[in-house]
UniProtKB/TrEMBL annotation:
It comes from Streptomyces sanglieri. This is DUF2750 domain-containing protein. It comes from the Bacteria. It holds the Pfam family DUF2750.
Length: 114
């Protein structure tokens, strides 16, 4: 399994276990990097430590925040789908790379238990 694949598998396992997802933001919102195909990804992490590393790498005063998994699943993922955003999962490494899924794919993986 690739590094991104193992990070994605860890995301779904850890988020289900803890019931929490983590993200980074500043006063204007969360970063939503543009991919090569022109879609934006909203990145989330499964632990505070993973999100803290991302905030440190991106800098610019980003802070780490959490959200209950149920609220993320029921509110944020449908909003992201309506806006045409992808969901970045446990991006890691010095350039914060990893897999992105559609919100529907994320919901399906959460429901299926991987």
């Amino acid at each position: 399994m690739s590094q991104s694949g193992s990070q994605a598998a860890a995301f779904f396992r850890e988020a289900r276990q803890s019931g929490v997802v983590w993200f980074v933001r500043d006063d204007e919102g969360s970063p939503a990097p543009l991919s090569a195909d022109g879609t934006r990804s909203l990145p989330y992490w499964s632990t505070t430590a993973r999100a803290q590393r991302a905030a440190k790498i991106w800098g610019h005063g980003l802070r780490v925040e959490s959200m209950p998994l149920d609220a993320w699943r029921d509110c944020d993922l449908p909003d992201a789908a309506r806006e045409g955003h992808m969901i970045g999962i446990n991006w890691s490494g010095p350039r914060l790379v990893g897999w992105s899924f559609t919100p529907v794919e994320v919901l399906n993986r959460l429901a299926a238990g991987d």
